[in-house]
Amino acid sequence: LASSRAGTSEAVKVRGPLTTNDGAIAVQWALDGHGILMRAEWDIARYLQDGRLVPVLPQCFTPDAAIHAVYPQRHQMAARVRVFVDFVAQALRPAEAPDGGRTA
Q1: Tens-place pLDDT, residues 7-58
Q2: 33: exposed, middle or buried (C-beta count within 10 Å: 0-12, 13-18, 19+)?
Q3: 49 in any annotated domain
Q4: Residue 103 in contact with residue 49, Cβ under 8 Å?
Q5: For the whole model, what pTM was predicted?
Q6: Residue 88 domain-assigned (yes or no)
Q7: Could you give the number of structural domains in the chain?
Q8: Is residue 19 part of a domain?
Q9: Is 90 inside a domain boundary?
Q10: What's the pLDDT tens digit per position in 53-74?
Q11: Which of 32, 55, 34 is CA-nearest to residue 44?
Q12: What is the span of the domain harbouring residue 18?
């Protein structure tokens, strides 16, 4: 975890009765009240917006993870591919926190 306020980072060992490597399962467990989770904001934005999930450590965040669009190089990209890539890039734009920092 890194803190936007203190400018520090710290390794945190997570322990608990539930463990999964499936993000959808982890989100469902949090929605069902079984604990907290750390997910990318774009992955849980709808639950934050409707109040089903709430930020617990808003001053903490994880490093950004890169997402790449991979497609064959051509002189002209198909219009439907360009529209899709532009849509995803816009949808996954980082959100800005009220204090000008990035949200978790």
Answers
A1: 777 777 778 899 999 999 999 999 999 999 988 887 899 999 999 999 998 8
A2: exposed
A3: yes
A4: no
A5: 0.60
A6: no
A7: 1
A8: yes
A9: no
A10: 999 988 877 777 778 888 777 7
A11: 55
A12: 2-65
